[in-house]
């Protein structure tokens, strides 16, 4: 098991530098930030759920914090009388047109995602549970000891290599180390992306490789 604290110690050992404590922490955060919007097998979730409110059509992070972590929606399901029904995607502009001046309420049948919010149509007439399958932004570890953070486990090699690249470029100004770490980052990236393509139907043909 790797934690943020362990990764920091390992990077310091690999660089043979014990004077870069804060810089290593910043580099790890930058490395995670570089890949948070990418699709990885560990960033897919079907655990985002929220309950609708009568007459409320738009739901944001204010209604459920996880909505604010959505990168791409794969599907939505609404439960009506305990039975799941698929919500169909609609273009935001089309929904804007249909909703204009429409005061009728019913169970939702379509959704749109715009301005980091889920918009439903028709507007719900009562409480329904909605489940979202989505690519989400995986958060960095909250502290040095947080266990099982995916960036420190499943993507450990990629983040550790990218953090050393960040340090080589922006702190150490070491072009030879930067070139070596760029190769390591590319290899780790391709391995993790290959694993993602093996495990998820949304991998092949929908993810573009990162350029360095």
Q: Mean pLDDT, nearest integer?
A: 93
Strand content: 15-25%
Largest sheet: 7 strands, mixed
Number of strands: 9
**Helical residues, percent:** 25-40%
The count of helical stretches stands at: 5
Low-pLDDT segments, ≥5 res: 203-212
Overall 3D geometry? elongated
Structural class by sheet pairing and helices: alpha+beta
Query: Ends: how far apart?
Result: 29 Å
Strand order of the largest sheet: 1-9-3-4-6-7-2
The helix/strand series, from N terminus to C terminus, equals HHEEEEHEEEEEHH
Rg value = 21 Å
Structure description:
By secondary structure, the protein is an alpha+beta fold. The chain contains five helices and nine strands. A seven-stranded mixed β-sheet has the order 1-9-3-4-6-7-2, with helices on one face. A hairpin with a 2-residue loop joins strand 6 (about 110-115) and strand 7 (about 115-120). Helix 2 crosses helix 4 (about 155-170) and helix 4 packs antiparallel against helix 5 (about 175-200). It is elongated and about 65 Å long. The model is unreliable at about 205-210 (pLDDT under 50).
């Amino acid at each position: 098991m790797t934690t943020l604290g362990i990764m920091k110690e390992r990077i310091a050992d690999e660089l043979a530098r014990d004077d870069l404590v804060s810089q290593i922490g910043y580099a790890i955060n930058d490395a995670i930030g570089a890949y948070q919007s990418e699709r990885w097998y560990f960033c897919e979730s079907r655990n985002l759920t929220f309950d609708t409110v009568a007459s409320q059509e738009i739901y944001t992070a204010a209604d459920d914090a996880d909505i604010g972590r959505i990168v791409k929606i794969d599907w939505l399901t609404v439960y009506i009388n305990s039975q799941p029904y698929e919500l169909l995607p609609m273009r935001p502009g089309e929904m804007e047109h249909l909703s204009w001046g429409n005061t009728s309420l019913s169970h939702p049948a379509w959704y749109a995602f715009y301005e980091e919010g889920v918009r439903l149509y028709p507007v719900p007439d009562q409480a329904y549970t909605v489940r979202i399958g989505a690519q989400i932004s995986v958060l960095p570890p909250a502290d040095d000891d947080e266990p099982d953070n995916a960036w420190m486990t499943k993507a450990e090699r990629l983040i550790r290599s990218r953090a050393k690249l960040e340090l080589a470029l922006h702190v150490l100004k070491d072009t030879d180390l930067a070139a070596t770490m760029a190769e390591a980052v590319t290899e780790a990236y391709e391995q993790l992306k290959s694993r993602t393509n093996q495990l998820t139907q949304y991998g092949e043909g929908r993810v573009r490789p990162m350029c360095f």
